Amino acid sequence: MWRRFEPVSAGTSVSLRQYSTVRRVRHPLQTARTTIDLQELSGGRVLFGIGVGWLQEEFAAFEIPFRTRYSRTEECIEILRQAWSGTEFSHTGKRFTFDTVQVHPRPTPIPIVLAGNTPKALARAARLGDAWFSSGTPTLDESTSYVQQLSALRAQTGRPDEFRCYVRVADPPPTNSSDTETAG
Cα(41)–Cα(39) distance, rounded to whole angstroms? Predict the structure, then answer.
């Protein structure tokens, strides 16, 4: 039965990342349970990517109002963090309400990687995320600007701790280029 998880738990040094789950389709408690299991099976190598979504037809297919995607995502993040804490909690929100539950008996830290390049997406990543992933393939200059904006936003929100940024750069310079070293 556990054979399908062997590559995950075999002691490899690969980080497991999911970029980006749009947090409107599954209940956040179901997502919390699944990510806890994967984090434990992988020995703590999961990075959990979340995007608010942009495709209106996708929301329509699940009968979820497109205009609620921002508040829904933020509420899901709040629930996930509580579920991963290992403590009992209940939740009464705009989108989800449930009585006291304890998803796991101990804390399971799972870094949240938020995606998006818009000013609102960057602000949300700085405020709620543990890392950031670019949308699309920005240029090196655009990527550098996003990283600088995130650094400033993190300082403004009182979160100047380490914050990883993951980007897919359009036409990256050669790996020995001083441009990439200068950009960080």
Answer: 6
Distance between CA 124 and CA 50 in Å, rounded?
11
Q: Is residue 3 part of a domain?
A: no
CA distances from 156 to 118, 133, 134 (A): 18, 20, 21
Residue-wise pLDDT for 52-100, tens only, equals: 888 888 888 878 888 878 888 999 999 999 999 999 999 999 999 999 9
Of 163, 40, 29, 146, give the one whose Cα is nearest residue 83: 29
Residue 1 inside a domain? The answer is no
The CATH number covering residue 89 comes to 3.20.20.30
Contact 69, 117 (CB under 8 A): no
Position 2 in a domain: no
